[in-house]
Amino acid sequence: MKQTILAKRYAKALFAVGAENNQEEAYNAALRQLADFCADNPEVMDALTNPLYPVDAREKVMAGIIGAMDADPVLGNFLNLLVEKKRAAIIPEIAEQFQVMVDTANNISHGTVTSAIELSDPLLDKVRMTMEKLTGTKVELTASVDPSIVGGIVAKVGDLVLDGSIKTQLARLKDSIKGRE
User: Fold this and answer.
1) Nearest Cα to 30, choosing from 62, 57, 58?
2) Which domains does the chain have, with CATH numbers?
3) 64 — phi, psi (to 5°)?
4) 3-class DSSP assignment, residue 113
5) Residue 80 and residue 147: Cα distance in Å, rounded?
6) pLDDT tens digits, 146-171
7) Strand pairing report for 160-163 and 108-115
8) pLDDT in tens, 6-32
9) Residues pairing with 153 in the sheet
10) In degrees, to the nearest 5, what angle opens at C-alpha 92 toward C-alphas 109 and 37?
11) What is the DSSP string of 14-83?
């Protein structure tokens, strides 16, 4: 079960401390590394969250992880607090929320571009630059292919959607013809 509100609170607290110490990028990288490690090794997440293990055993596991990561003492204390408060299960969500906060602070938006065929790098760069002009932020795009749109592209960044697909144009034409009848 997702606990986004709780994850946001923890991420916001760590971000505030990280910004104060100018460590938000380092904390972001460490959290992302830890979240990926936990995703790749579910037994580690089990060792951190399973209530059958005593709290001190879970804290030792986290201490080992912190030592292996060579984490900043503030980040280490934060991660220990998560284990102590039985919140280690939301580490991946905290990492996601922290990434959003870092991107917002750096004026970066993430978006997607869907096309019927794979787009070339120059064309993808043109789409990215257009989206940057429209949003006023630096845009990082993820490209995907969906043959069902027939042709054209659908670009999304945040709430902004530019739909230039043939499928949508045909649907609009169909609706306008129906409207005339």
Assistant:
1) 62
2) 4-104 (1.10.520.20), 108-180 (3.40.30)
3) -65, -40
4) strand
5) 48
6) 999 999 999 999 999 999 999 999 99
7) unpaired
8) 999 999 999 999 999 999 999 999 999
9) 115
10) 110
11) HHHHHHHTT-HHHHHHHHHHHHHHHHH-HHHHHHHH-TTS-HHHHHHHHHHHHHHHT--HHHHHHHHHHH
